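Shape matters. Shown next:

___
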Amino acid sequence: MAVSVNTVYQTVLYILNKEQRGYVPPDEFNSIAAQVQLEIFNSYFPDGNQVNRQNQNNTQNDTEYFNVFDNLSYKVTPFIKEITFDFITPNPLIQPPLPLTYVDNIGFVYSSINPVSLSINPQVYILGEVSCTYNGNPTYTSVAQRTSKKEYTRIKNSKLTKPTKQFPIYYNYGGYTVSNQGKNSYVVIPSPLPDLVTASAIMVPTDPIWGFTGGAGGQYINSFQSSINFMLDVSEQTNLVIGILKYLGVVINDPTIIQVAEQEAQQTSINEKS
């Protein structure tokens, strides 16, 4: 269950008012909220790596609801997607040549003069297992081995280790930015060239947005249609509130203030919907 952006915003406003710290407009809140969500999201991976070492040493709690590693894995699950790559025609004006690019309801299009890229939203954070499909008789679907650019060239040119349809290889450029567009695409170069490339990937969370319309008195009224909730698990709601308040320079020593504020925000949300 995702965290309501309206609940978090109303909670922050309640605490700011209680602490007499002024007011945060929606645009400022949205920018800070996106940063805090990304910080919490980024923390899952070093935390998971550290906890996994406890698993290897058999010192991890293994009960159903108190296994920290499983809980972190659960929080990451909504960001795991199966993605499909789309073929593009390399433009000799662009270095290096890019035969494949990630596509998810977007594309990477070349014109005769300048490349035009549609931004990826959300973007790839970590690329997982890459699979290459080769049509024919028989048809092969093989997991490709990731290599560095240097290893890719050496393996591809070797008679003994040359990649095959059963054992393909690839290297990737990660986020590739089109200089005159300021937009990103995720690129992989497989060998031998397949008919289809798919992969599992962890995607960057979409930025939250507290959307609004203007009231008769100039006040901000929440618009659920134009709002985007946080993508984090509901268990992160308190961390989101505290993180945003830290950026606003507010230090909360009493956790009951946040509990009361969340109750007030939930009631406000209910009243707006009724």
